[in-house]
Amino acid sequence: xxxxxxxxxxxxxxxxxxxxxxxxxxxxxxxxxxxxxxxxxxxxxxxxxxxxxxxxxxxxxxxxxxxxxxxxxxxxxxxxxxxxxxxxxxxxxxxxxxxxxxxxxxxxxxxxxxxxxxxxxxxxxxxxxxxxxxxxxxxxxxxxxxxxxxxxxxxxxxxxxxxxxxxxxxxxxxxxxxxxxxxxxxxxxxxxxxxxxxxxxxxxxxxxxxxxxxxxxxxxxxxxxxxxxxxxxxxxxxxxxxxxxxxxxxxxxxxxxxxxxxxxxxxxxxxxxxxxxxxxxxxxxxxxxxxxxxxxxxxxxxxxxxxxxxxxxxxxxxxxxxxxxxxxxxxxxxxxxxxxxxxxxxxxxxxx
Length: 352
Known about the structure:
Blueprint: H1 6-15, H2 22-39, E1 41-50, E2 57-64, E3 94-98, E4 106-107, H3 113-119, H4 144-159, E5 161-163, E6 167-169, E7 179-181, E8 201-203, E9 251-258, E10 263-270, E11 276-281, E12 286-293, H5 326-351
């Protein structure tokens, strides 16, 4: 979604009973226009709002017209799963956050597989401070800005929908990642009533694997002529490409009518991630996604944190050895003295 459509899409969310206030929308519109100009962004859309205990986060999803160079950091861990490059997978877009629409926007760092995996075992409320520590067990590899970025990635790849048939994958690619819009003459629009079926919605982005990536990392190259070269021991996970049907997910679907406009709005709310909503106006052939919530998924049961490892027990009591009998101690000494005496006798006999 581009900035000029922000006002119309916010009205669609408002009609659906899920949106921001009008004054809040106008402030965001102006702030996002300024952000796009200052950063040289190609596309900008409002991801939504993450609620926090001290302050909230407005979140903007964007792509650069010219992708910036990756910042230099510490050498990657050889045993860690490689992160996806900018523009791919979980790092396909960049995200900017601000505590207020009138304040400066801060770009969140690229997300790593380790952070996504760790975020699944953590359930912490956001504080509104990007530099706050994430105190939890297992330890999270980063501060609140990394935890926020990981949760955003999980929400985006799970709850962002689009009408089925609107897009198609690039068949020329070996790895199906590029999504192209279907030509108008080939696209058959669904009716608003048909959009009440989850089968007529599909996921806009690829699913995230258990390793924290959308695609399996490339296999390590084997050295020629070297026996016992490193080989992958685990079978790669089955990847979930973009545009997979949302029929198997939990969604609440309903129709809303905009008063005076003669337009029906199809609304799909995620039951797994409360606060995620998708709207589509099939008459105008437009759709959008928004999230307003605490950044947590529904577990279906009380959250049970991972138990810490057991405490190290006390060492066993030291056992005292029995004293060596005097006869045993003297036997070793007598043996040495006897050998010395015999050697002296032999030496004296040789001299005579």
